[in-house]
Amino acid sequence: MEAILREEQSPLHLRDREIEKARQKRKCMPSRFSQLLGIVHVLLSYTVADGKFVSFGYTRDGPANWGNLSPDYKTCSSGTQQSPINIMEDDFVINTKLRDLNRFYVDAKGTLINTGFNIMLKFDQGAGFMSQGGKNYTLKQLQWHTPSEHTVDKQQFDMELQLMHSSDDGNIAILSILYDLGNPDPFIYQDSLNNLSREYCSEDEETHLPVDIVRTKALKRHKVRYFKYIGSLTTPPCTENVTWYILGKVRKVSKNQVALIKSALNREFQNNARPTQPLNGRIIERYIESKFNPH
């Protein structure tokens, strides 16, 4: 697969008060970090309809039915720029105006959150930023999907890590890293992240675990190629106009690490990948570092 390199084996505005009040009732473990970060609430995976949260699933109330669960979710079925997508090796445009993904991440405090349907890591004050197109995007949160949501030539990978960023003007950019099985991923290998499965939560409960320091070095390795396209969030409300960057080198993750991430989730959500969505004429751009794209 020429377009994707494999790594060698080596070591939103919803109703704020109602949302926060409802989330306080859903904790399966007390936490000092009960107040979520002020990310645009479009990043939430639950919404408010008639004062109640509307849950979604991957088997019951699965992706094909998300758009019918709530008016807030209608874009999941009516949108024309939905994510994830399948990237075809012979169906992209090389854009010589693109530049390297400059990532200036820093070690930071965070909150590890088991929502029962997802494992995510939110940074208390952000964890540095990514610079692209003359704009800075602050790293706000990470979340894992098993198996991967994006595919390449219809091949699905064992895991996908999505790094969610937002700019000062509210634009969202997501950096995606694909993984297949091999040696342990050094990011998950951190001691502070080995608490992923400390508490089991059902889909209507939530655990918050403080992380004193998240070391971000493993997230900012220089990469010579990536794909870019305009899409959406991959969970309800499936908001569009999200810029996606899919790294072109597949990393390694151990079988035990994948099992660790899955083990804390409700059975229905252990395979939490939304199926790929139609391109509907969208263009996938590809960046390759060369003399035309100097680093």
From TrEMBL:
Organism lineage reads as:
Eukaryota, Viridiplantae, Streptophyta, Embryophyta, Tracheophyta
The protein's GO terms of the molecular function aspect are: carbonate dehydratase activity; zinc ion binding
Domain Alpha-carbonic anhydrase as annotated: residue spans: 54-288
Single Gene Ontology BP term? one-carbon metabolic process
Q: Which named protein is this?
A: Alpha-carbonic anhydrase domain-containing protein
Q: Which CDD domains match?
A: alpha_CA_prokaryotic_like
